[in-house]
Amino acid sequence: MWIMPVAVITGASKGLGRALAGALAARGWDLLLDARGEGALREAAGAVSAHGTRVAALPGDVTDAGHRADLVAAARRFGGLDLLVSNASALGAEPLVRLEALSLDGVRRALEVNVVAALGLVQEALPLLRASGTGAVVAVSSDAAAEAYGTWGGYGASKAALDQLAAVLAVEEPGLRVWAVDPGDMATDLYAAAVPDDDGPRPDPAGVVPAFLRLLDERPASGRYGAPSPAAGRR
Asked: Which of 69, 125, 210, 219 lies at a 20 to 30 A Cα distance from 199?
């Protein structure tokens, strides 16, 4: 019996997470989708399931260890786990502010969601990813992880830490592919919350999804990549 590949995608109710879920489902992937907003997540899962694959919506907060365990347990029931996409993110302040005004609790929240929870989910999922034979981890990063932009300090620091975790994981788990991916500017609710006064045109998240699919098709070496035209190295 042919077994479809299985992916866990966090932050999948909208934006990049939802666009990637739809593209993977169209390719025959079974999906476990996470987000905090139950209504939006279930609506997204319903739309994605129209492709005919198994799609489960598991609303919850990735900072909750029990929720992370539930995501991996659901993947196990689906038959395994081939791809883990850490896409859920927290800004630390909405809108973004200069470091002098940045709440330390906001920094802690950004680190907890963007770094600690991402690592916790990897730790929970490693046995299944190793068993896959083609296991891959995608850490959704940002150019703010590599460049200094005013007001982006807390968020950028958390993404820089995520990049480093991904790099070390790649060294420690040579049997996996571990990609930190900077998707570039996109028209998302996260960006609108970060910089509400910036009403300039930005690409739809669906436009960068082909870059993620290319990584899965070509399976380049673990490393940091940019979208929409993946190229190793910082952006």
From this structure: 210
